[in-house]
């Protein structure tokens, strides 16, 4: 496994769990040290057990030295493809470095399996660069969700192999089927495609999901203008099986290390391919999503009577979604930051993401518990729907807060319950 971030570390531990001998390689020595000791360097449910079992069994090892890839028959490349600074395009420096360094350690017959999310056309270029090695390149996109990464890896909705034509491609399918024998036996559908399709499946899926979220958030804007309730609207349209209720949760919108940068990189790539019009709708998907964050701050200002300057504001949640400590492009942290810049006294709490948040945005006040966070608050914003926040008892906060104002940024609280307890409850897209 080359690259041991959210994707590679989970894939490494999962492959060891399936019975394979795995070596995880990463250039970050601190990360390698933690993983080798069986400690995940980030929060992900089920990963600690899988990792420590793998390490204890001797089937899972870690190294900073790419030369340790020699001797493996299958090399998964799982490095990140972040957004380029100041541009929409993906930064491929880690992909280029990983494939470049690995090239001299592969032997004839090896499979080199790209899992990173890349602009379509990247795999074709990498396959050309590997000509002469007699290793076969496969593109095998990964669809795991943070928070469910282990489950999604061991029981994927589908497996997609982008393979070259001919005997090498056929052999690659056999080898990968062997690697993934267990999920395939348990019913995960498996498709083989050409390289271009395999690379596109990933960004098309993420674009569809982002579009679904922005669609419902656009409807939330209509609901706000008309007094309608977007949660009831989502339930009603979601009963149509062609639409489906999942990913129709309106609120603060999407963030994280995937959806935002993937739709932007996809637009950039479409431009390079001369088909930018085909994806111009994604510009709107992105714009609707970013408007949610601004609207949230506006709502906070409204509830505070026109100004948030000097007001004590509590933000529940810093991670981009629950069950994760990932704060990359986190809507919650972005709103906290905006309110701080606009003069509010912002206190943030989160069960897992405080350390990452503090490192990224040091000038906010961070506290460990909800009780500390809400003390003297004039306004509470629930921005990441961690279970413990969804289940908060409005009565239990009595006597701690200065004013009973709550903004539900994820439409997860019961408005009647909070109102009955004397709170001013407001949400995006709800009357
Ligand atoms: C996503 C894809 O789901 C996954 O298949 C891909 O491999 C990587 O990108 P992830 O970023 O981990 O996974 O999280 P996901 O659960 O998809 O949520 C993304 C964002 O959308 C979060 O910020 C979440 O809060 C938001 N979201 C999700 C909504 O705002 N509304 C919804 O209805 C669903």
From TrEMBL:
GO terms for molecular function: NAD binding; UDP-glucose 6-dehydrogenase activity. SMART domains: UDPG_MGDP_dh_C. The keyword Oxidoreductase applies. It catalyses: UDP-alpha-D-glucose + 2 NAD(+) + H2O = UDP-alpha-D-glucuronate + 2 NADH + 3 H(+). Its EC number is 1.1.1.22. Substrate binds at residues 143-146, 202, 247-251, 255, 321. Keywords: NAD, Oxidoreductase. The active site is at 258 (nucleophile). The keyword NAD applies. InterPro entries: 6-PGluconate_DH-like_C_sf, NAD(P)-bd_dom_sf, UDP-Glc/GDP-Man, UDP-Glc/GDP-Man_DH_C, UDP-Glc/GDP-Man_DH_C_sf, UDP-Glc/GDP-Man_DH_dimer, UDP-Glc/GDP-Man_DH_N, UDPglc_DH_bac. GO terms for biological process: polysaccharide biosynthetic process; UDP-glucuronate biosynthetic process. Pathway: Nucleotide-sugar biosynthesis; UDP-alpha-D-glucuronate biosynthesis; UDP-alpha-D-glucuronate from UDP-alpha-D-glucose: step 1/1. NAD(+) binds at residues 26, 31, 81, 117, 146, 261, 328. Residues 314-415 form the UDP-glucose/GDP-mannose dehydrogenase C-terminal domain. SUPFAM superfamilies: 6-phosphogluconate dehydrogenase C-terminal domain-like, NAD(P)-binding Rossmann-fold domains, UDP-glucose/GDP-mannose dehydrogenase C-terminal domain. Belongs to the UDP-glucose/GDP-mannose dehydrogenase family. This is UDP-glucose 6-dehydrogenase. It comes from Sediminivirga luteola.
